[in-house]
Amino acid sequence: MLETTSAAPLASAARGSGSRFFKSLFVQQTLFLTVVVTVWEIAGAYAFDPFWSSRPSLIGERLWVLAERGDLTWHMSATLTEAGLGLAMGSVIGVALGLLMARYTRAAQITEPLFMGLYSLPRVALAPLFILWFGIGLPAKVMMSFSMVVFVFVLNVLEGVRSLDRDPIDLMRSMGASNRYIARRVLLPAVLTWIMASFRISVGLALIGALVGELIGSSKGLGWYIERSAGQLDTTGVFTGIVVLIAIAMVANNVVALVSNRLTRWRA
Fold first, then answer.
1. What are 238-248's pLDDT values in tens digits?
2. CA distance from start to end of the chain
3. Cβ contacts of residue 255 below 8 Å, gap of 6+?
4. How far, in Å, CA of 6 to CA of 12, rounded?
5. pLDDT tens readout for residues 173-224
């Protein structure tokens, strides 16, 4: 009898532990990706010709070959460098321009239609110009990524400042606080959420900018590898490049989310 009563709490604890395990967000995401990959593999093997969609097993083999030869690192580092530099430049210049436009409201009203027009312009149309101006090297891809993200930061920071409560700012000005002090102590902390949201949006846009530049003119990078594979009717190569890009975007978004949670924890 004692053994039965003592085993019951152990069984209940085991069930609770198992339930918590399967309710974990990471576990659920892993299971979802596993199901997607499994369905893709089965469909590619039995439902239709893998020439049209390849298969995860073939993509895994290609990734292994590329990693062994060092090509994977070479192409990834090129794309990450282009996208990273464009994102860094776009964030710094975009935040600065957004704060300036918020400070000088009349100038913002005059220039905002132009900013909206440039923001709405498909940046793919600028790619040939960047190639002409900067060649097919690194600067053209960086500028392409920069043009994709800078307006996101400008408009988000501008909207974030406009949504602020003006009373604390007016109070600090009445007490003799300088504009630089107000910007450092009030404006930047208040628009931090908007800035981090801009980063999450811009990660993908920076990668798109780098890829567009590589597709138009390059000798390395994931975009170049995808284009070359498509030219050779190598579906597995195309999907390999796409899978690597998806993985990079997922990791980058998770990193931005972690940094955002740490920086905005004080708002909770």
1. 999 999 999 99
2. 50
3. none
4. 11
5. 777 777 777 777 777 777 888 888 889 889 989 999 898 888 887 778 898 9
Contacts of 66 (CB under 8 A, 6+ apart): 72, 75, 240
d(CA 234, CA 56) in angstroms, rounded, equals 14
- Rounded CA-CA distance 202/24 in Å is 28
Confidence (pTM)? 0.79
Tell me if 151 sits within 8 A of 91, measured CB to CB: no
User: What crossing angle do the helices spanning 188-216 and 138-162 adopt, rounded to 10°?
Assistant: 150
Q: Which CATH number fits domain 53-267: 1.10.3720.10, 1.10.1740.10, 1.25.40.10, 3.40.50.300?
A: 1.10.3720.10
Give the pLDDT confidence score for residue 2 in this predicted structure.
Answer: 47
